[in-house]
Task: structure prediction
Amino acid sequence: MLVLGIESSCDETAAAVVERRADGSARIVSDIVLSQVDEHAAYGGVVPEIAARAHVEALDGIVATALRDAGLGFADIDAVAATAGPGLIGGVLVGLTTAKAIALAAGKPLVAINHLEGHALTARLTDGLPFPYLLLLVSGGHTQFVAVEGVGRYRRLGSTIDDALGEAFDKAAKLLGLPHPGGPAVEAAARRGNGSRFALPRPLIDRPGADFSFSGLKTALRLAAEAIAPLNDQDVADLAASFQAAVVEVVANRASHAMAIFANEHQRPGVLVVAGGVAANEAIRTALRAEAERHLFRLVAPPLRLCTDNAAMIAWAGAEHMALGLTDGLDFAARPRWPLDETSAPLLGGGIKGAKA
Ligand code: KG4
Ligand code: ZN
Result:
């Protein structure tokens, strides 16, 4: 089965063709990602309106390239899958509408995919992982532990109650005068710094459960920076290193709790999958590997290219749906918010379980 996937929920315009064989194994036939990073760099973050316009301009060409790379035409594919949320609604509309148009014109089924499900199922695309497994999704928009028990069966075991971790890295970078995207810049600066120079808080550490909080850490970083301003290069490196040291400790502690919860529920250790852009961080990966070993879990980290936003994961999720006979109507509405675990408490409104969580 060949599925064309489309992703446009943030600042990557992407299209891919993925093959799912009858035995459940996978092959990425083509995979095109166009990053808009340069278009947003001057603003220190993603500007939704600029992102939506850039998707409109690029998507047709990206889809054509993905098909050409695969040596296929619309007639050869079995379904079109697109991210239908959650994300920046302008961009989601561009991708979903494009997918609907292709589905209608080519007479192919449409599969509307939750972007988070794309991340959640990536380890099955890359490693053929069987259910169940524990996922830590750490990106610019999301920070959560999910028990992945089957296609459509996702249970959130913990999540951030304020900022996503990638967002915290990006804000830390902005505050320290480092370039966007902030994660790689903070990590690079941290390598030259002393992580114990500033005593920053470790929010929620050792509290029961597997939730995260990063807004207090961000404020503490700002106060520490303001107290010694103006900052020289070494100050910036030391602040970055101290921030990263706090984050690493928090992530390790929360992962330890999540693995304990998961192992207890399943009566045995399992696999911890880490996905999302922040999974690129070496210090975080190293800490997770050590924690996983301590809990007798296997750590699976898909290749970085498939950890960050891409369309192969959307095509693959579409193929998993197709294999179960699950398709969607052309009236499927784009959703700016769409929790992966629809049974858990909605994260709407303000406060510690607020919308950003
Ligand atoms: O998954 P992703 O590419 O896009 C979404 O947010 O969906 O993740 C991007 C985020 C950004 O916030 C970026 O700063 C962060 O991942 N990031 C990192 C690193 N590389 C990217 N954070 C920490 N360390 C890194 N090396
Ligand atoms: Zn993502």
